[in-house]
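hey all, quick one before standup. I had two proteins in the batch that finished overnight and I want to keep them in one place so we stop losing track of which output belongs to which input. First protein below, input sequence then structure tokens straight from the run.
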Amino acid sequence: MSTNHDSSPLTGLGESEELDYAVSTCARCGYCKQVCTTHPYGNGFEAFSPRAKVHFLNELRNGRAELTPEWVDRLYQCTTCERCQEVCQTDIPLVELWEAARAETVKRGLGPMPVHLKFKEFADKNGNAYGEPNEERGRWMLPEHRPAEGAELLVFGGCTGSFKMPAMLRTGVSILQRQGIPFAYAGPGELCCGSPILRTGQIDSAKRLIAGNLDTFHRLGVKQVVTPCGGCSKTLKHDYPRWAKELGKPWEVEVLHFSEIYVRLLREGRLKPKKAINRKITYHDPCHLGRSQGIFDEPREILAAIPGVELVEMENVRADSRCCGAGGGVRANYAAMANDIAEKRIKEAIATGADTLATMCPFCQSSFAPLLQKMGNPLQLVGVEELLLQSMEE
């Protein structure tokens, strides 16, 4: 399904062959209902299931249903975790459909949720979804971090990594420097990748952010862009090439998540963890890193390379991993639901007997951290790269 949102699958509600295909091929099997992260919070009503939403969109398109506030609310109660898409028997790109539906609610003046509108207002004014002064985007950097002019690799911090949870970003850059890998950094020239704006259907604002970043990439002449954030890397990998074509701008870069950089260095023998890190660790697969990008093996390969680490897997891992509850704008607007989803994932981690919960997305980390503290810190929360850097130290 196309993600050209100016001609989204719901535009015109009756003129799209893509929407015809998406809604007519639904087998109504219910597998999506069984794995949906947010369906359990609909008081048992079928209307909150993915298959019901597909049916509703078909009815809406054919003029047999109305886009009521209740249905708008249901469309926004989705973390875009892709579990429904993973089990879909007819391969419907469901997350793209949900995002297109949200864009339609915005087009009709019925969406987004008020708190999501704040993301847009902040990004329009400040260039980031948190409303922070964008000239302070580089405040995460340590004194020893030295960006290089003309480097082919650009570090893209992302809003959460830059302003809220900088540990993974700092550690990644420290590892690059230890390996003698030059990196560029745009500083205030970096804008929000657009993910929280895109996922909530606010296309015009997202388009401006994407265009600004595309211009920056081209101006700096970079060949690779690396980020610690699963949401940023998903957006840069999957949405930017399509939007570059739509906007008539060049797309000349390879996008990498930091985990992919670390694994390359390990396989090349350039990165050699030596110091034992004696911990029993369970790993959380971020939705936008795992299901969205297929990055399941890399974090585990990194952990396996660190002496002393014992990996114990949770019941639901890899493509079956449970969501942290933060994605798709859910944590911002449905905090109680998001916290309950995250708490269930934490309890699954505790059940492994691990002493440490590791992940590779600052957004997941920001979801788990306050709940772990509230629960008395039954697990230590770390980024995989933090363990890697510790193991590199003499």
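OK second protein, same deal, sequence then tokens:
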Amino acid sequence: MPPLHKATTIRLFSLATPQMRAFHLSWLAFFVCFFAWFACAPLMPVIKGEFALTKDQIANINIAAVAVTILARLIIGPLCDRFGPRKAYTGLLLVGALPVFGVAAAQSYESFLFFRLAIGAIGASFVITQYHTSVMFAPNVVGTANATAAGWGNAGGGAAQALMPLLLAALVWLGVEQTLGWRFALLTPGVLMLVCAWLYWRYTQDCPAGDYATLRAAGQLPANDKKAGWQSFKRACANYRVWLLFVTYGACFGVEIFIHNIAASHYVERFGLSLKTAGLAAASFGLLALFARALGGYVSDRIARRFGLDGRGLLLFALILGEGLGLLWFAQAETVALAVVAMITFGLFTHMACGATYALVPFVDRQALGGVAGIVGAGGNVGAVAAGFLMKGVGSTQECLLLLGVCVSMAALCAIAVRFSAEHKAREQRLYEQALTERAAAA
């Protein structure tokens, strides 16, 4: 792809450039997808009664919610390389809205499980968001751009925790039966996805120079090779750094997804909170993404200024270790107040670690960006599925959280093992300094 015209600054209050339009619409689309992805979670106590679900069935539903995302993320990254993020995102939003409407119409545990499984595919929206901001922003700000777009998008999960119970309560207050109200409430994110699909198609382009199809027709990009996506995927698979980041992202984003799925129910069951209060408590974790993930990317960019790529890796190690220790604290909290404080503390480290991971991803292999972004992103969902099976196996939320804390702390070692050759670091440093020069010239 053409390396020119990448943005060296982030102008948050501007939609004048294709870079900033891609930035704002990618986080907005991701926010809506994340909202739809986790809209069921805070309503599970109601849905549990509707279908008379057992604890084992709820565990299956939580696993289903993230399992398909693994495959979807592996596929969507190479598709971005081949067709461009504009087509990939528009298609995902349109197709992904169907199971969102379907889950609202479910009449049994089996049909609900099927649509919950299918909804997991929209979790691949994260990879497209990271891909699109990676090709739009220069090395000096790409970490901040990636982390901010992903963080604001991730906040959709926290918004779902807070707003879905309130939406259901409003419908019940208007006279809608609760058994019908949760279904109407779940239609909302599906409609929002259709709106975002139109906005994305209408107002974005694949990269600063234009759409991939137009650039290929003009000879500015290689002709569209049907094997391009597969080649990107194979190249990424052969890079050991990709798999180390696969593990670290499973340790941070995987835990984030797991907490989204179980937080509200945990507060209801362990501390006896009402559904609305538990939803608000759980929402505090998700809403940290509004700033914490961006903070992780920003700090990574700042550290890279002095310590280069090695500094980005050391920061990631420290953040994941802090997350693991905070998770152990949360697992042993005996009061609601202490649990919320512990959750916010380890949540801060979790979100920052997610941002720091994707502040490193664009530098792993520029020739296989889609493959790298897809594999690392899939690692997050592998972590979530593993946590779901762990929960199902031990049966106790507290014991599961303790074991997760230990596993996360150990996974931090993978961040230290990410190393780059002197040649690779020198090349990236030149690109970084070039971006700073362009920024200074523009100023």
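Flagging for whoever picks this up: The chain is about 80% helix and 0% strand. The chain has one domain: 18-217+229-442.
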